[in-house]
Amino acid sequence: APWDSLCSPARASLASPVLCLADMAGPIVQMTRHSQAREPVPYVTLSQKCEEAAYEERWYPAGKWACVTKGEPMYEQSISMSFMKLMRYICKENSVGCYLGMTVPVLNEIHLTKEGTELEREVLTAYYLPGEFQQNPPVPMDPEIHITERAPLRVITRVFYGMTTEETILREISLFWELLGSTDTVLRETYIVAAYENPSIPQRRNEIWFICRA
Questions:
Q1: How do residues 158-213 score in pLDDT, each as one tens digit?
Q2: What's the rounded Cα separation, in Å, for the pair 69 and 78?
Q3: CA of 211: how far to CAs of 3, 159, 173, 187, 208, in Å?
Q4: Residue by residue, what is the 3-state secondary structure of the chain?
Q5: How far is it, in rounded angstroms, from Cα 135 to Cα 119?
Q6: By the number of CB atoms within 10 A of the CB, which of 89, 150, 171, 203 ranks highest?
Q7: Model confidence over 68-112: pLDDT tens digits?
Q8: Which has the higher per-residue pLDDT, 85 or 16?
């Protein structure tokens, strides 16, 4: 499995609150080369706009997710710390004691301040349980990881590439609003950043998700 080297004892025992991205370089390369081993989160495409400003509307069914919430000073710190916690759960620190398998994307749910100019500190990071574990999710050993049944979700998504910082996320949200124009069909204070690669890959694929109102 492409994530096996992240599951070695040396890396699984990482406890430092500061994530050493260089230490993850080897495993990241392996994961990128074996992307076919990653199970996609199931969804249905409802509509697509395939012009230069491409985006699409999707429906994601209800499912069980392993979630961690962090509120570090910087967005990147929160998602990196949550990601490593989830990787330890995926690798071995679970009630079945085995590698669970990677799914994509990993979701980072964010909230804007009332002014809409900054991100709230708390970020919820969520990993979709692979199909074989949906009915009976392995219990995390880490008390900060919670298994949650998330309701069906309808979103409008747009791809962007690169590092995800507060600055780049706010820019992508602003750009997406310009493309969509004035609409009351989506939430204005809550968004999702969907990550398809490890947080330390510089030119990684991401998506910004606008959440449709129920």
A1: 999 999 999 999 999 999 999 998 889 999 999 999 999 887 788 899 999 999 99
A2: 8
A3: 30, 15, 12, 6, 10
A4: CCCHHHHCHHHHCCCCCCCCHHHHHHHHHHHHHCHHHCEECCCEEEEEECCCCCEEEEEECCEEEEEEEECCCCHHHHHHHHHHHHHHHHHCCECCCCCCCCEECEEEEEEECCCCCCECCCEEEEEECCHHHCCCCCCECCCCCEEEEECCEEEEEEEEECCCCHHHHHHHHHHHHHHHCCCCCEEEEEEEEEECCCCCCCCCEEEEEEEECC
A5: 34
A6: 89
A7: 999 999 999 999 999 999 999 999 999 999 999 999 999 999 999
A8: 85
Contact partners, residue 82, CB within 8 Å, separation at least 6: 68, 69, 70, 108, 123, 125
56 touches 44 (CB < 8 A): no
Spacing of C-alpha 140 from chain mean position: 18
Is the Cα dihedral 25, 167, 48, 134 positive or negative?
positive
Q: Which two tokens stand for residue 201?
A: 């890959």
Tens digits of residue pLDDT in 29-49? 444 444 447 899 999 999 988
- Angle at CA of residue 178, ends 173 and 181, nearest 5°: 115
pLDDT of residue 94: 97
